[in-house]
Amino acid sequence: MPLNSINTNVGAMIALQSLNAINGELATTLRRIATGLKISSPKDNPAVWATAKMQSAEAKSLDAVRASLQRGQSTTDVALAAGDTVTDLLDQMKQKLLAASDSSLTTASRKALSDDYVSLRKQIDRAVENASFNGVNLISSGSSGSIKALANAKADSTIDVDHVDLSTSGATMSGMPADLLTRPTNVEIKAMDGVMQKVTAALSTLGTQANALDTHLTFIDKLQDTLEASVGRLVDADMAQEATRLQALQVKQQLAIKSLSIANAAPSYLLKLFGG
Known about the structure:
Strand content: under 5%
Strand order of the largest sheet: 1-2
Number of strands: 4
Oligomer: single chain
Order of helices and strands: HHHEEEEHH
Distance between the termini: 24 Å
Largest sheet: 2 strands, antiparallel
Low-confidence stretches: none
Structural class: mainly alpha
Mean pLDDT: 89
């Protein structure tokens, strides 16, 4: 049998406990709506919070990997553009070389061909020496620059692009005549063909290594997106669910306040027992 007392209002105690619990849930829901997160601190869920933090850090660290790969891409693109120019110039040099092999040329004509040939040779060196990006030149004679782009966030793996000397003084270009003032021999013509084969082979290798950078960057982009999505699944709040929950809690809060009001008013009815 319940005790009729003005000192101990059990109904008010129960109503107040219920109101406090509802207010706590309402505060949590409002925080989730305001932040968009269901887990925003270790208090919410220590294990999930720690996992999300580690995965988020991994995703952010991949920004450095992406930047390294992109620098490598830019450097190889510059080198390949210069290499394409080199092959075009070699084609023109071969034409001059074949023309100079004509025994009926006059001295003046041979001199003109030689001047053009030497000019093209200088253009090759000019293109090669200016094929730098961020201080790295993959094809010049005065540099041993190469690329070791980061492949992961632990920095224990790299995507490598090797240096190749495409200057006219390098081994790849060896065998070409310096000028055409004398009639080129068959050996020199074959040497030019060999030079062109070596240059195209070197550029093919460079292109393969450049493709490796492109492919890995695509993978890193996908990996970063996957990690961010995984973190979101762990900590993001379902806003539709939270909106529904907010409305329900607001109704419960109003009912709890009304219940507390009724419970607090109950002792005043005892005055009627004393003719009040």
